[in-house]
Amino acid sequence: MAKYSVSVDGSAGADPQTIINIFSAGNSRGHIYDIIMGSDATPADQAGSMEVLRTTAVGTEGAGFTPTKLDPQTKASDCDGAITHSVEPTETANSQLLRFAFNQRATFRWVATPGSELIIPATANNGISLVRRVSTADFAIDATILFFE
Fold first, then answer.
1. Structural domains of the chain ordered from first start
2. Between these two residues, 11 and 102, which has the higher pLDDT value?
3. What is the per-residue pLDDT for 74?
4. Residue-by-residue DSSP string for the chain
5. Interior CA angle at 74 toward 81 and 33, to 5°?
6. Are 50 and 16 in contact (CB under 8 A)?
7. pLDDT at position 91, please?
8. Of residues 43 and 92, which shows the higher confidence score?
């Protein structure tokens, strides 16, 4: 089982905003098992809500992100990552996999119970996005998503 990481440092923008999108580059299926996020901005009492949902098109990524191999001896990932979108990925209707509230002063972490990982569809350009849905102010978010294939 090969494991990978996709991270973004200080993603800032208006709501809604895709922080990270991980998608299939062909017929691969990734399994997301860990999501970590927080803010490196000056501490303030800002709140918000995030969604993790399915996507059917990549959108226009400001930067592609080749998933980092957690084991350097592993093959390159069959999935791809995207950050800093100028056009949001196409969201699949009614596909919220997770929804959670957060505060800028706190780090948030979600870890899947074994067997309950979020599965990236094995269809080209279909994926899963971490999206800032609404917040009381625009502030930078750092995030990391870990997955295996």
1. 3-148 (2.60.120)
2. 102
3. 94
4. --EEEEEEEEE--SSSEEEEEEEESSS---EEEEEEEE--SSP---EEEEEEEEEEE--EEEEEEPPEESSTTSPPPSEEEEEEEEEPPEEEEEEEEEEEEEETTS-EEEEPPTT-PEEPPSSTT-EEEEEEEEESS---EEEEEEEE-
5. 50
6. no
7. 94
8. 92
